[in-house]
Amino acid sequence: MIEIKNVSKIYDGNIVALQDINLRFKEGELIILKGVSGSGKSTILSLIAGLSKPTLGEITVDKKKISKLPDHFAASYRRDNIGIVFQKYNLIPTLSVTENVLLPLFPLNLPRELMKEKSSNVLQKFSIEHKANVIVKNLSGGEQQRVAIARANINDPKIILADEPTANLDEKLSLEFIEILRELKSKKRTIIIATHDPLFFDLDIVDRTVSIEHGKLL
Amino acid sequence: MNKINFYLLEYAYAYIKRNKNKNIFIVTVFTLLVALLSSVFFITTTVEHEMKERISYKPDIVVQAYKAGMQSSVDSALLDKLLEINGISSGHLRVEGTYDFRAKNRLFYLYGVAPFEDQEDPFIEQVLQNEALNSSQMLVSDSVKESMHQAYYDKYFNFIKPDGSLQKVFIKKSFPVHKRIELQNLILLDQDTLRKIFGYSENEGSDIALSVANKNELDFITSKIRLMLPNAKVVSKNDLNVMYEKLFDYDSGVFLSLFVIAIFTFFIIIYDKANGLSSEEKREIGILKAIGWRVEDVLHAKFYEAAIISFFSFFTGLLIAFVYVFIFKAPLLGEIFMHNTLLDIHTFNLDFYLELSYTLLIFLLSVPVYIAATLIPSWRVATLDADEVMR
Ligand SMILES: Nc1ncnc2c1ncn2[C@@H]1O[C@H](COP(=O)(O)OP(=O)(O)OP(=O)(O)O)[C@@H](O)[C@H]1O
Ligand SMILES: [Mg+2]
After folding, report:
1. Close Cβ partners of A41 (under 8 Å, ≥ 6 residues apart)
2. B190, B211, B286, B380 - which has most CB atoms within 10 Å?
3. Which atom of ligand 1 is closest in space to residue B387's alpha carbon?
């Protein structure tokens, strides 16, 4: 369960990105964060991921106070619980698909066979195994996004955060992405998607849509 | 960090390859720097080492007489006087000196041998073994023989005495000098014959060589002789060692090169730092953190990256210096660095000799400094909030 309590985020002392936000998401829910550019969607995702700390207020995930975690533990928390699909994918363009997907696990120094097994599982699941050894920069946009989703799922995270996941996809690929969401939801993942793509607004699998404007909930 | 993480190592290696141009530049500068410095240290330490070995073959104390500021011959009466000093175990009058061979523009080194006399230098001792020289015979090095041959002297050589008359001496045999290339001008001949060539009378010699029974007393006895003979020049083995040590320790070239390494190392570091981390590099660290790497994981990978570059550069540089100095015998640089010591680099063997402390010094000046210069900016970026990657 994710709980956001009285959270404000102020950048550089005067840019108010979020103002007194209160939200509560249950496990297995699929939530859409909706709002125009600059409304604060990505900021909420950052806070839930522990990538930054709220200026005021508190964020709790499974009774753990994320907003109070020192950097070191915040990273471990992300590795064990969170998968992020970034708006710009944020892959390492010169590494292969497999290497990109396994990147989050590199510091764990796991046995080669286990790594191989994990990567082939996840590549298969997101239908990109035929490109396993291709260098990422040679992939199409849709393929890159599959790699990004595969990477976000390499550690079976409970929570998946996706920032504008369909911004760079055509309609066909966007619909494919929604199928992937359906699959993930069936596995009881908590999914939070920041988007202003109307495609998501009347989707059957969406449990809740939260609208933000100028850093405030509507 | 006690076990090598090969995933991070591979990641670091891939990272280096991705920034190929920049890293090739750094590796090149780094390698050349280490090669240059190691070469200088290899040259100076090896020459010093060989110099000390040569000194070890010299007599404990050499006494030369001076008249009107010029070196003159010594009389055997002086030897008798010196042998009375406590602590001096033995001594002998030496007849030796250079002879200018004009035809080949070359200086021969003539060394007079008295029958049944022991030699300080084991090489001369060995050459003389089983070679009884009569008064008109000499032993010459192969190289001297070659010079004489070029001047059409194959069986004998005519030395010109101070009065202009000739002294004919036959070449009995020639000998190879092997590693003792400082002896390549050596001619060994009967002491009395050499007296005639130098114009000495019967009880004169060029200097006096003394042995000291207890080497700890060497300095004390040396200064005692100096007090006794204010006009003489008294040189002990210890003096020679100190002189050559100073020659290299305070040789400005060595310090200049140290200065150069410092500048270059800082140049690399400053290049790296001034460029700081590019926005791409920063973003990549942000991505790694966002997908669950801790700061120490990022630094672990960066450590590998810097270690690969610095170790590779260091050992390549060392290898280049090794080949350059010990295999190619340090052309150019050797001449430059020996220039102000007045020693001729070509009279040294430059056989492999390693003084670990200097290599260690170069290592410490370069490798850890480079690693630190890589880690610090990465650490700064890695400890910042990574929410930039969401934008
Ligand atoms: N690191 C930062 N420093 C300064 N201002 C920031 C920073 N991050 C976000 N902001 C500001 O906070 C506000 C909210 O930004 P945020 O990225 O959350 O919006 P968004 O809803 O994700 O917009 P978009 O749809 O364009 O991605 C914006 O005004 C933005 O300029
Ligand atoms: Mg955004």
Report:
1. A33, A34, A35, A163, A194, A195, A212
2. B286
3. 1
The H or E element spanning position A57 is strand A56-61
CB atoms under 10 Å from CB of A138, counted, come to 12
Residue B288 near residue A107, CB atoms below 8 Å? no
Neighbours of A66 (CB within 10 A): 25
Neighbour tally for A130: CB within 10 Å: 11
Backbone phi, then psi, for B280, in 5-degree steps? -65, -45
Task: Indicate if the pLDDT at residue B259 is higher than 70.
Answer: no
* Partners of B63 in the β-ladder: B208, B234
Contacts of B283 in chain A (CB under 8 A): 90
List, chain by chain if needed, residues with CB within 6 Å of any ligand 1 atom: A 11-12, 15, 17, 35, 37-43; B 391
Q: Is A87 on the interface with B (CB under 8 A)?
A: yes
- Give dist(CA A144, CA A164) in Å, integer: 14
Predicted model pTM: 0.83
User: Chain A contact for B295, CB < 8 A?
Assistant: yes
The three-state secondary structure class of A27 is: coil
The 10s digit of each residue's pLDDT in B350-373 is 888 888 888 998 898 888 888 888
CA dist B33 and B29 (Å) reads 6
Reported residue count of chain A is 218
Q: Of B85, B95, B119, B93, give the one whose Cα is nearest residue B222.
A: B85
Q: What's the complex ipTM?
A: 0.94
Please tell me the distance from the alpha carbon of residue A150 to that of residue B148, in angstroms, as a whole number: 86
Q: Which residues contact B331 (CB under 8 A, 6 or more apart)?
A: none
Q: CA-CA distance, B365 to B75, in Å (whole number)? A: 56
pLDDT at A195 over 90: yes
**Cα(A166) to centroid(ligand 1), Å:** 19
SS3 content of chain A, % helix, strand, coil (to 5): 40, 25, 35
Residue position matching structure tokens 């955060």: A161
> pLDDT at position B330, please?
85
Average pLDDT over chain B reads: 88
- Check whether B133 has a pLDDT greater than 80: yes
Query: Do residues B107 and B120 touch, judged by C-beta distance below 8 A?
Result: no
* Cβ contact A75–B14 (<8 Å): no
Chain segment B40-70, per-residue pLDDT in tens: 889 888 888 888 888 999 899 999 999 888 8
B196-238 per-position pLDDT tens digit: 999 999 999 999 999 999 999 999 999 999 999 998 999 999 9
What pLDDT score was predicted for residue B249? 63
Ligand 1 centre distance from Cα of residue A18 (Å): 9
Smallest CA–CA distance from A164 into chain B, residue: B390
CA dist B33 and B27 (Å) reads 10
Q: What is the DSSP letter of B161?
A: P
CB contact at 8 A, B95 and B112: yes
For A130-158, the three-class secondary structure string (H helix, E strand, C coil) is: HHCCCEHHHCCHHHHHHHHHHHHCCCCCC
